[in-house]
Every structure is written in C-alpha cells, then in structure tokens.
Specification:
By secondary structure, the chain is of the alpha/beta class. Helix content is about 40%, strand content about 5%. The chain contains 12 helices and 4 strands. The protein has a 4-stranded parallel sheet with strand order 3-2-1-4, sandwiched between helices.
C-alpha cells in the first residue's frame, strides 16, 4: 500500500502529526470516523481495567495540565493575568487551567481567579452554542444548555469535536471564574494564525482560533485594552504546514488577507524587474517575464 492508506484529505489529523507516532514505532489504527467516534471506541476499550486511558477523562492528565497555570503565574512573578484564552475541543484544558488557578488561590499564593475564555472553531462549537443560548435567555450557562453536534471539518482539526467529554467540568470552571466562550470562523482563525506567524510565532490553527477570539473580544470591548492577557498556544506550526501552504496559495476557499505568495523571477539578476509597476505585479503573485518579453 502507498502511504498514507487513507487519502491525506480524508485524515482528521495532519500528515505531520501522523508521522510522529509512526516514526516512534507506535501501533497506529486508522478508524473511519472522527474524534468523537474514536472517543466512543476508547471508552469501550478502557472498560477493560488492563488498558490505560490517557486522555483528558483521566484525572492524572488534568493534574499534569494544571501546571500550565502555575508556570504562567510564576513567570509573571506571582501576579495573575486578567484573562487567559485557550482553544477548546474536548474541553480538558479549560477545566485543568481552572484547577491550577483555583489551587493557587486556595494556597494563598494568589487572591482571585483570572477570567477564562474557551475559544472554539465555528465548525465545532457545542460549548459556544450552549453559552449563546444562556446569554440569549439573560442568564449564566448551565450544563442543560449543551447539545451534542456533529463537528464539521475545520483547519483546527485537533478541536474538531462535537461531543466533548469534559464539558461538565468546563461549565463549572467557567461559572466559577466568570468565563466567556467565543468562536472563530475558518477565515478568522487562518488570518489570525498568519498574522501571528509574521511575528515569528509560527503557530498552529488551534492557536489561531484563540488569537482570532482575542481580536474579536477586544473589538467588542469585552477585553479592555491594557489588560494582561495570555493566549495558550497548543501546538507548533510545523505540524500544520499543509494548511499553511494552502493558505498562502489562497486555496482554502476564502480570501487570505495575509497570504504571501513567492515571486517567480528569471534566473539572472539583470533580468529582474526594475520599474515599480512590474514589482507590484510581482507582489500580486504573477510570474515576471524577462525584459525582452516585456518589450515585445
């Protein structure tokens, strides 16, 4: 069989993500389903006590993730951020961050909790929809506001989840810290990711979701300018070079505001365009003909 056995367009993870466990010698099973379908299979398999569950349903995983909060505060010389934004799919990160901040407060190392923002992709947004229902009714979110959904394909593939198993814990966390849920469209998350890339971050699409939500919340006045804000980045852009390449090729089906196409030039420096009009054409992504052709 050629690799991968499924077409790369059918994969629910990037090829770069898939290559890592393959290269490490792991047994990789490619199920014909999405994250929620895999989660159901894992839950059934781990009914066998000899099989260890290693995702966010496991409290030990949450205990590890909560240290993000502790390191964050430590790096601020034990001062709290005002807001913390985190991409949300299965929602374990939201509850884990809250746990870490809560324990710091209970130990007397801090005096309050920062406000958390769970940031979801518009194509996989069950918690955002629940938050919107509660807001429309003029009240705070309740677990009963939630309805599972079938997540649609999104560039933020790791949070393409319609039935998050950690939703009850996430709702409790948001209630205690007066948290917010926001969403980002595919164009918003891709543009935000590309904009951040220009600072040298080279971040993942999921971080792009959180950055896009930050932009929207600042524009709406929810997050005040001058507030101390932390955006949690969940992966490196090198795992998602395929979607980044398609963005800069303007091949994602929507306008790419920060697309940066390579400029095709002749081989010899003397043949490079010298007039400003030709340079503008080059920036638009068109091939530059040699001088002889331009004269003709």
């Amino acid at each position: 069989h050629s690799f991968p056995t499924r077409r790369s367009s059918d994969l629910k993870v990037s090829v770069a993500q898939l290559l890592q466990p393959l290269a490490n010698g792991a047994l990789v099973l490619s199920l014909d389903t999405d994250f929620d379908g895999c989660m159901r299979v894992v839950q059934r398999l781990t009914e066998d006590p000899t099989i260890y569950l290693a995702n966010s349903m496991n409290s030990l995983r949450v205990e590890g993730q909560k240290t993000i909060s502790i390191e964050m505060v430590q790096q601020f010389d034990w001062a709290l951020p005002d807001w913390v934004l985190v991409p949300g799919g299965n929602l374990g990160n939201v509850s884990a961050l809250h746990r870490g901040f809560s324990q710091l407060r209970d130990l007397g190392l801090t005096q309050k909790l920062p406000r958390l923002v769970c940031c979801q992709a518009e194509h996989a947004n069950p918690l955002y929809e629940a938050f919107a229902r509660a807001r429309a009714a003029g009240r705070r979110i309740e677990e009963a506001d939630y309805a599972a959904q079938t997540a649609r394909p999104t560039l933020a593939s790791a949070i393409q989840i319609g039935a998050p198993v950690s939703l009850p814990k996430a709702v409790r966390a948001l209630l205690e810290c007066d948290g917010v849920v926001e969403q980002a469209s595919e164009q918003e998350l891709a543009d935000a990711s590309a904009r951040a890339d220009r600072t040298g971050m080279f971040n993942c699409p999921h971080t792009g979701v959180a950055l896009a939500c930050l932009i929207k919340l600042v524009a709406a006045g929810t997050i005040e300018r001058g507030a101390r804000v932390v955006v949690v980045s969940t992966a490196h852009g090198l795992k998602f070079t395929d979607s980044k390449a398609r963005y800069h090729e303007e091949a994602l089906g929507f306008p790419a505001r920060y697309a940066n196409r390579p400029i095709d030039l002749p081989a010899e420096p003397e043949q490079a365009p010298r007039d400003s009009a030709t340079r503008r054409t080059a920036r638009a992504g068109r091939v530059i003909p040699p001088p002889q052709a331009r004269k003709a």
